[in-house]
Amino acid sequence: MAVEYIKKLFLTLLLCLLFQVSHGQVLISLLFGDKLNSDKIEFGLDGGIAFTQLQGPAASDMTNALHLGFYFDFYLKNQLQLHTGVIVKSTMGAKGIPPYALGNQDLDNLLSTATVRRKLGYFNVPVLLKYRFKNSNFYVEAGPQLGWLHKAYDEFSDSILDENDLLYEHKIKDNIKRLDFGMTGGIGYRLMKGHGMNLGIRYYLGMVNINKSMPNDLYNRSLYLSVGIPIGAGKAEKDAVKTAY
Question: How much is the pTM?
Answer without folding.
Answer: 0.80
